[in-house]
Design a protein that fits this description.
Layout: H1 20-28, H2 32-50, E1 55-60, E2 64-70, E3 76-83, H3 89-106, E4 111-116, E5 119-120, E6 127-130, E7 135-138, H4 140-152, E8 159-164, H5 165-176, E9 184-190, E10 194-200, E11 203-204, H6 241-253, H7 260-265, H8 275-283, H9 287-311, E12 315-319, H10 327-340, E13 351-354, H11 361-370
Parallel strand pairs: 1-4, 4-8, 9-12, 12-13
Antiparallel strand pairs: 1-2, 2-3, 5-6, 6-7, 9-10, 10-11
The structure holds zinc ion.
Family: Belongs to the ROK (NagC/XylR) family.
Organism: Kineococcus gynurae
GO molecular function, one term: glucokinase activity
């Protein structure tokens, strides 16, 4: 007797997970890894064209223009400083052209990099907004190239690029300073405000419109201290040179006995207290100055924990004048970071390191970026 055969199950009709049209669309969308590869190839081509020769780096600040000729190893081989003549873009552009002309006399310049505090467009040619210079949509690259040509009757270098100053500083530290070899690097520059830069897999992350890395304006205290940007409670109101000085002066104005040493050092005038003065007092063991750095350091650590939650970097380099206090600032920052980090105890901790290039980071970084890196 034949055993009954099992009924063949009906073939299931499975709908494709991705409809055919969507699949075709996905195939047309460029693979991000390919896009990255293409960008790297473009960079390599540019670098091959421009080479590793001397590049000019220019750092435009609110009060001074610092410039240098930087070699392929990140060394500053010549240097110049000028007072920022005026807040008008034309005045500053003339100064930059003058500096390039001077350097071009003794050096065979390959490219020019200009670092400016403010928003720089994604094409790296126009300063969209510079808070300290009253610049609005200033086509800086073109203006400088035109002026240099007019002065020398020729082009200088193969190209000129404009960078956000904090991006340039981050790049400088990545290539030649405390961030060497780090595949996910953040740089936090503590000056009057906070500058931020992101370097990932050998590229500066500028964002879709060129404005990424404005860490200083992340709000950490809703309704807190008023910021220059118009909002309240921005991170830079708590963890910057301005924050340090504001707190120190407030302490001195309150006539607190703990502030007597700071006041003495400032000749009895609370308004004469500066960041370097607080640093000096803290180094000398003054308890009030030490506490002020602990407070700023704590805010710094909390902000770094926020950045870690969003970006998961391996190293955060701390630069700018406030970082001169070194462990007086970084010690409390590390402690606050550890206490605030989300998932603490279950994830590797990033490294918080002091910047190595000092005030030259921006200049060195913009020069190097102009060669086609980043
Ligand atoms: Zn702000």
């Amino acid at each position: 007797m034949a055993t009954p055969r099992k009924a063949t199950p009906r073939k299931a009709t499975v709908k494709p997970v991705i409809p055919r049209k969507a699949a075709a669309r996905a195939a047309r969308t460029p693979d991000p890894r390919r896009a990255e590869l293409r960008q790297r190839l473009r960079q390599q081509t540019r670098r091959a064209l421009i080479g590793d020769g001397p590049a000019v780096g220019i750092d435009i600040g609110g009060t001074k223009v610092a410039a240098g000729v930087v070699d392929g190893e990140g060394r500053v081989v010549a240097q110049l400083r000028r007072v920022t003549p005026t807040t008008s873009p034309q005045g500053v552009e003339d100064t930059i052209a003058e500096i390039v002309e001077e350097f071009a006399r003794d050096h065979d310049i390959v490219s020019v990099g200009i670092g400016a505090a403010g928003f720089v467009d994604a094409e790296r040619s126009t300063v969209l907004f510079a808070p300290h210079l009253a610049w609005r949509h200033e086509p800086l690259r073109e203006a400088v190239e035109r002026r240099v040509r007019a002065r020398l009757g020729r082009r200088v270098g193969r190209r000129t690029v404009v960078e956000n100053d904090a991006n340039a500083a981050a790049w400088g530290e990545y290539r030649f300073g405390a961030g060497r070899g780090e595949s996910r690097l953040l740089c936090v520059t503590l000056g009057t405000g906070i500058g931020g830069g992101i370097v990932t897999s050998g590229s500066v992350q500028r964002g879709r419109y060129g404005i990424a890395g404005e860490f200083g304006h992340m709000i950490v205290v809703p309704g807190g201290h008023r910021c220059e940007c118009g909002n309240r409670g921005c991170w830079e109101q708590y963890a910057s040179g301005n924050a340090l000085v504001r707190e120190a002066r407030e302490l001195a104005r309150a006539n607190s006995p703990v502030a007597h040493r700071l006041l003495d050092m400032a000749g009895g005038d609370p308004e004469a207290i500066t960041g370097p003065l607080v640093t000096e007092a803290a180094r000398g063991g003054d308890p009030a100055a030490t506490e002020l750095f602990e407070d700023v350091g704590r805010w710094l650590g909390i902000g770094i924990a926020n950045l870690a939650a969003a970006l998961d970097p391996g190293t955060v380099v701390i630069g700018g004048g406030v970082s001169d206090a070194d462990e007086l600032l970084l010690g409390p920052a590390r402690e606050a970071y550890r206490r605030t980090l989300t998932g603490r105890g279950f994830r590797p901790e990033l490294r918080i390191a002091r910047a190595e290039l000092g005030p030259q980071a921006g200049l060195v970084g913009s020069a190097d970026l102009s060669r086609g890196w980043g």
